[in-house]
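Q: A reviewer asked whether we had any structural model of the full assembly, not just the individual parts. We don't, so I'm hoping you can provide one. Inputs are below.
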Amino acid sequence: MRPGEIDEIRKLPLFAAMLPENFDALFRGAYVQSFPPQIELIREGDPADFLHVVLEGSVELFATWNNRETTMATVAPIATFILAATIKNGPYLMSARTLEKARVILLPSADVRKIFTTDTGFAQAIILDLAQCYRSVVKSHKDLKLRTSVERLANYLLRKDQQAGEQGHFDLKIEKRRLASYLGMTAENLSRSIRTLNGYGVEIDGSQVRITDRKDLAAFAKPTPLIDDPKC
Amino acid sequence: MRPGEIDEIRKLPLFAAMLPENFDALFRGAYVQSFPPQIELIREGDPADFLHVVLEGSVELFATWNNRETTMATVAPIATFILAATIKNGPYLMSARTLEKARVILLPSADVRKIFTTDTGFAQAIILDLAQCYRSVVKSHKDLKLRTSVERLANYLLRKDQQAGEQGHFDLKIEKRRLASYLGMTAENLSRSIRTLNGYGVEIDGSQVRITDRKDLAAFAKPTPLIDDPKC
DNA sequence: ATAGGGTCTTGATAAAGATCAAGCGAGGAA
DNA sequence: TTCCTCGCTTGATCTTTATCAAGACCCTAT
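A: Here is a predicted structure for the entire assembly that you could use as a starting point for your response.
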């Protein structure tokens, strides 16, 4: 682990409230590993032996069925993924692969499970984390069931613009075909959806997005905090 | 509350591990209410003032956006709903309405939040409950993104048949238009999907379902525990 | 510089699903 | 009983989205 890195991890909401001795015990059993791009870290269905923490690079969570595949989320530093499987001691419901070169900490699930039963602070943090995760998926589910693909794209762009400080321009930071899969459409359909949004104050050149008329876009997208506010 | 009912509630996994004095304190502040059918108990966006427990009847969780509405889940006795909003002290992400005459307990969210910070047993139970809820929604999300509407229906029928003991026949226990909304399709499309499944060993007359050829249906539906096993 | 591999876009077409309109049929009220 | 309502089904049509095919673009390695 890099110098200072452990302190950053200790500051993550999930770990901040742990008793120091438990934190130390948990991370003594940790493996830090570096992976090249496009490596499958986790295969859905496998037992959840490790809780993962992304330190560098980014990781894609995806799911498959019957030769189809869909992107569920991307995880960026510093964040954990697949906490619920670890807790339930069940199989992973999603697979994970590195998108770029990535460094990841693997924390043995058995240790996590053991510690949260005795460490109140850790248990509290897990509760908040799981509640947050749950609400995020519910929002995604509403997005998918209530909106068309163009509407999902429009709201996605508004969210990203907001996260980038409402500058009116930002970088997608994700391949278009992955974005398409994340949004629940094909790459071809994404291209055409972008075309459609050209008429509502959106210009996309490569990975550069410019929102030239946020009012117009918002009037089309009709964002609501109950779907689009990540903090809510 | 009816005699004996409080004991049933105490046996729910969510409450079973609570300290008796905390359980008693929590339920001293409870309201038991009876509602007629089609009453909105909760409106999405409202603050989560109460954790709800369904004692009798059934409750539909649904979400709306831009004049569209979709069924997210139905809750049957005895079960709680909208725990995550209570925990996070955030707005409800879903609305709830009674489907039939229903009796519901309302537990003040503030009490729930206060108690889980001190009662380890309760905290553990909440963790398991939230992890379960999270995984359920992830499964629904995979179902929706990876499968066509006919495939979703086919797998739904297999799940219900299994839950009814693999008898090969069971009652839908839900209006078709609600089932359609739950499965992410229109009522018309559900009718046609049923027609399609007639060719795979499924007969539906009113609310009575008969699976005459489970092999054939399963070969079409390709169920997987990673989407279709509610316990996994 | 250029050849090769990927991604992205575009067009044509097909499939899936939604909408609209009409009629059927079971159940409830007068 | 008859009428009415409401949910369900069916057919026709339209919209949305996916698929297939081809070409443009853009890296990158040689």
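A: Points you may want to mention in the reply: The mean pLDDT of chain B is 96. Chain B touches chain A through 49 residues (CB under 8 Å).
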